[in-house]
Amino acid sequence: MKKVQQAGLALAATATGLAMAVAPAAAADSADAGVRSSAAAVGAGTPEPFAGQVRAAHLTPAQGRALRAEVAKYLKRSGGKQISLNEIKVDDKRTIRVAIPGEAHPRTFTDHGSTAPAYSSICNPNATTSNGYFCAFSGEHWTGSEDRMYYCHSYDMNFTGWGSWVERQYGDHAAKFYGKRGDYLDQTLGPISAAAEQNWYYVWTVVPC
Question: How far apart are CA 76 and CA 79, in angstroms?
Answer without folding.
Answer: 6
